[in-house]
Amino acid sequence: MSALEDRPPAAQALIQAAGSGSRLGLGPKAFVRLDGETLLERSVGLFRSLVESIVIAVPAADLDRARSLVGGPGIILIAGGSTRSETTRRLIDEATATWLILHDVVHPFATAASVSQLLEAARERGASAPGIVNTEYLYRRDGEILHPPGGVLVGQKPVVFSADAVRRAYQTLDAAAVSDDPSLLEVLEVAGIRTAFIEGSARNIKITDPADLELAEAMVALEKCRSGA
After folding, report:
1. Which residues pair with residue 78 across a beta bridge?
2. What gap in Å lies between CA 165 and CA 175, rounded to an integer?
3. How far apart are CA 150 and CA 153, in angstroms?
4. At what angle do helices 39-48 and 63-70 cross, to 10 degrees?
5. 27, 75, 158, 166: least CB-packed within 10 angstroms?
6. Rounded to whole angstroms, what are the CA distances from 209 to 42, 103, 128?
7. Per the structure, how many domains does the chain have?
8. What is the pLDDT of residues 160-185, one digit of tens each?
9. CA–CA separation, 41 vs 32, rounded Å?
10. Contact predicate 81/138, CB 8 Å
11. Residue 229 — very low, low, confident or very high, per pLDDT cuts 50/70/90?
């Protein structure tokens, strides 16, 4: 069977790549390099073999720069918003598929196998995401214990969800009790969709600050050592 025939039907990837990267200190996160590739290129590389169309939101000033890296057939580039949730909404407004896969370039170790599992779970429940169980006590800033180990899940990317459901949610979002900058899962709750979590991976790290990037570089180096590359 060809790679095209293997692709999930009616699914489209949406990539958040509009972050400024202020905590990382290396400019826009989309263009930070890991193992010779930008985080944007790594994300697009993951989805090229899984979907036929990818919508990417980058800073408005960097549209041409992004196009020079990943532009081509099946790639739609748009300007991101001033907040995470605004960028997400712009991506969804641009989407055309029945099932949408929202990813963020700061998760460079997501896998195709995980995406396949998420699609299967989302088709049963309406939305799905990977999550890992907390292994430490979680506290409020004043010291009050909130959750013991194993008490909560830490959500990861990508998130897979029904396009119809999220659009219904956005129609009533303004009247709903949500935060000023709601997460996608919070938006889906407005439509009555409770996200189903599948087992995530501790390897699916999020690159936010310099220490995270150092860890990612160490992970890549270890993979190369193990493979003899």
Report:
1. 57
2. 16
3. 8
4. 50
5. 27
6. 18, 19, 27
7. 1
8. 999 999 998 888 876 665 667 788 99
9. 10
10. no
11. low
pLDDT at 5: 46
Domain with 22 in it: what CATH number?
3.90.550.10
In 3D, which of 9, 102, 90 has the Cα closest to residue 54? 102
Are 205 and 216 in contact by the 8 Å Cβ rule? The answer is yes
CA distance 118 to 83: 26
Strands 99-104 and 11-16: parallel
Question: What distance in Å separates the CA atoms of residue 127 and residue 79, rounded to the nearest whole number?
Answer: 25
Say which amino acid occupies 3.
A
DSSP code for 2: -
User: Containing H/E element for 172?
Assistant: helix 163-172
The residue segments making up the domain with residue 18 are 3-227
Alpha-carbon span 23 to 163, nearest angstrom: 32
Count Cβ neighbours within 10 Å for each residue of 14-37 and write b for 16 or more, e otherwise. Answer: bbbbbbebeebeeebbbbbebeee
Q: How far apart are CA 11 and CA 99, in angstroms?
A: 5
Average pLDDT over residues 153-166: 94
**For residue 141, which amino acid is it?**
R
Cα dihedral across residues 49, 164, 55, 215: positive or negative? negative
- Owner of token pair 């069977």: 1
Residue found under tokens 């959500």: 155
CA 171 to centroid of chain Cα atoms: 23
